[in-house]
Amino acid sequence: MLTTTGGFSGFSVDDLERATAFYRDTLGLKVMSDSMGLRLNVTGGAPVFVYEKPNHVPATFTVLNLEVPDIDVAVDELSAAGVKLEIYPGTNQDERGIARGRAANRGPDIAWFLDPAGNILSVLQG
């Protein structure tokens, strides 16, 4: 069995300066910089490492899920900050971009958006 002392996830971006501004100023996350990249401190979760990669290609899956107490408030806050929500065919999203899984007992309420590097992020409740 593997013995560990901790863990974290990570993903790449094409521009650390833009990523810092987005994660710190737009999303309001705690961002710490070091010589290797950024460390995002997400309340209640393990740190997330973000690093610059010259040939970055955005992930085709959600790289970061942010749990929120109220999905409607979170979507309002994102929209007010200029963040555009993504609409994905087949996800039964409402006009605001929220897939409401809790009402149908099919998972969380979730809404997706992109960071400046094109990575997929989400806010979710439940």
UniProtKB/TrEMBL annotation:
This is VOC family protein. It comes from Lysinimonas soli. Residues 4-126 form the VOC domain.
